[in-house]
Every structure is written in C-alpha cells, then in structure tokens.
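A favour, since you know our structure tokens better than I do. It will help me judge whether the discrete encoding reads sensibly. The space below this message is yours for that.
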Amino acid sequence: MLTELTLLQFRSHRRTHLTLDGRPVAIYGPNGAGKTNILEAVSLLSPGRGLRRASGDELMRRDESVGWKLQAALSNGQEIETSAQPGASREVQIDGKSAPQVALGRMLRVVWLVPAMDRLWIEGAEGRRRFLDRLTMSFIPAHADAVLSYEKAMRERNRLLKDMVRDASWYGALEARMGEAARDIRTNRQIALGRLATAQAAAETAFPAADLAIVNDDSADLAEALAEGRMRDMQAGRSLSGPHRADLEARYAAKNQIAAQCSTGEQKALLISLILANARALKHETGEAPLVLLDEVAAHLDATRRAALYDEICTLGVQAFMTGTGAELFDTLGPRAQYFDVQEDAGLSCVTERDVS
C-alpha cells in the first residue's frame, strides 16, 4: 500500500502531498477541483498511460511547462518516482535507480473504474480488450511485455503491408514473434478470467456476478495464419488476425443476459463486481490487496449499494481511492477512511485532510 504520495506540477496540482495510513481514501470536492487528478497520479504508479491514457505533455501544468513528477512511498519501504520533461517520454525510478515501466507492475497492483468505462459493454471492442489486459496484467505483470512485443512486431508488419512489400523473407521473423507473443497473450487472458471466475464464485457480495468469455479470438497458430493471409492483409493494409481482434463478452450470470442488453445500473454493478473480484483474487494469490481507484463511483449507486461497496472494500482491506462531490457520499464509511477535501483556488488544487471522527 501507499504511505505517501506527492504530486509536483501535475495537472492542476502545483505541489500536493498526502500522508496515508492504509485506510480507504475518500476525496471530495466540487467538479473541476482536481480530485480525479489524484487518482490519475496513483494509476501512473503502474505500467502504461494511466486511467486517462494521457500523453506525458498533457499531464504537466499548462501555466508552468517544466515537466511533472510523482513520488510515492510504499509500506514495505520502497520508493517510486516517475516523471517527464516536456516533449520527452516518462521515466521511472525505483529506490533511486532507473527502471522500465513494466517493473512497476511487479511492485504495485492497481485496478480502476472511471465514468468513461460506464459504456464499456456497449461501445467498441478496443476498450474491452484494454480492460481485459489491465485485469490480466494485475495477475501476470509479464503480460505487459507480451502485449508490447506483439504490438511492436505488428506495427512493423503493417508497415510492410502498406508499402506492398511482397518478399516473404521480410515477414517470417515478424510473424514468428507475433505468433509467440499471441500464445502468451491468449494463455494469460484465459488465466485471468479463470481467477476472476473463482473469486466471484467464492464470494458473498451485494453485486451481481459476471460470466466472462473471450470471443473472436483467432490467435491460435497465428504465425501460420498470418503467412497464409498476407495477400488479404496487404489489400487491407493491416493485420486482420490476432489477439488485437479479440473481444470480451460478459453476461449477467443470474439472468443469463448479455451485459450490453442490461440496464445502465446493472452494467455499472457488473463492472464494480469485476473490480472487487479482481481485488479479492489478487489478495488471495499474493496476500496483499491491490490499490483500487473508483472515480465518482458513489454518485451512481443508491445508499444501500454504496454502503455494501464500502463494507466490501473494508472487509478486503483494500486501500481504495474514491472521489465524490460531497463528503456526505461517504457517510457510512465513518472513521474507517481518510478524508481529503479538494478545492480549486485560482486554477490550483488545494487539498486538506479532514477529521470526520
């Protein structure tokens, strides 16, 4: 878990320092004050581009284009620093030494749910694949390496296809790399779904279970399929087979109803159920619960469901970071949480810890 978090020149925060004691964290204040920016900072303590998928330059304060920096201390004594200068890729340091982003996945497991995901089940497959891969990386950090390897080889192959290169010798090594990475991706995704299913089946929860399946996955024997499909892919200008074409299908288990056909409230409840199952499975597997980021989740739940969510978070021992527009949304948490009031002052976020005991 996190014991300290510092944001420097990050979004609307010139300098914000939080001292954390392991309890869930309730962050409240008006819209636009900078609450979600704190969650985004935490999400960047894991590999990737964070919960908003922003570029490095989008993360720095616009009035002072001097780059940004995040610093975090963990309960095991380790320290993380990640930063970026204008126009440069972000860098990571662990205990003062440079490290690749993928190393973060072996230190902290971070899962999140944000309002943009509310339409996950009814929009395009890309968002669901990204959601699936985030879940998978939480269980298998090396999944990030497989995805990066696959995407890099696919980009190079797509470049050849667009240039209408017909010499087979240019394709062989790339297709072999894609096939090897695809096998890992396929296996990792199935492992993740199995662990989620086990966690849901063993839980007593107020949130509905989701039956998950990967569909449209044609990545078996991919290297051979790519070799056979080169002319077709050349006409399309891109690779038409592989794990980048797969989709995640969810069903409301009790109703045997596809998530896309459920009500908006049911779709949200299914997402929360999966995040909780993810946390439950990780704690069972590693002995330590992940960091859970829930942006504006309380506003979309009635009082009974909110209370049930908070009870499950506390029972799991999860260090959850939750945002809401008012402290009253977290009333049933009481002294089980830390509270931070975020206000905007002349374009800057000002954060104050409040005692609600």
